[in-house]
Amino acid sequence: MKIMGLDLGSKTVGVAISDPLLITAQPVETITRKEENKLRQTLARIEQLIVQNGVERIVLGYPKNMNDTIGDRARFSEEFREKLERRTGLEVILWDERLTTVAADEALIESGVRRENRKKYVDQIAAVFILQEYLDHLAESKKEENK
């Protein structure tokens, strides 16, 4: 089984996919669209990646506000989740993504990626962080069950 992680932005979607053992998340690509609400091609590309990689579940970043309230970006993610579930038939889990883009940007800076190149990778890395947090949560839950 593989799980896909998505970081939904206004014009991009960062994509990451787990290994079959659900231990690590790897960046795959950044899907770009011209306008925020033009999602047909984005959904089609996600669907292609699901089929190519044997994905069985999706984790979608859920951008809650720092005070734990739901804003416009979170509502957009909820709508995108519904579209993804209808189109793919897969379970889509909303996962708190607060500060993942900041952490991704910092990781790229620490890695020495030049400023002009960071934009290309930040969404993918944010998707990796979202998915890795979810995978770590799954592993921790398994440990607790086995106690």
Q: Which regions have little confidence, pLDDT < 50, spanning 5+ residues?
A: none
Top-tier CATH class: Alpha Beta
| Radius of gyration based on Cα positions | 15 Å
Spatially, the strands of the biggest sheet line up as 3-2-1-4-5
The overall pLDDT, averaged over residues, is: 87
Q: Determine the fraction of residues in helical runs and give it as a percent range.
A: 40-55%
Structure classification = alpha/beta
Principal-axis shape: globular
CATH architecture: 2-Layer Sandwich
Can you tell me the number of structural domains?
1
Query: Which percent band covers the strand fraction?
Result: 15-25%
Oligomeric composition of the shown chains: single chain
Q: Tally of extended strands? A: 5
> How widely separated are the two ends?
24 Å
Question: What is the helix tally?
Answer: 4
CATH-defined fold name = Nucleotidyltransferase, domain 5
CATH superfamily: YqgF/RNase H-like domain
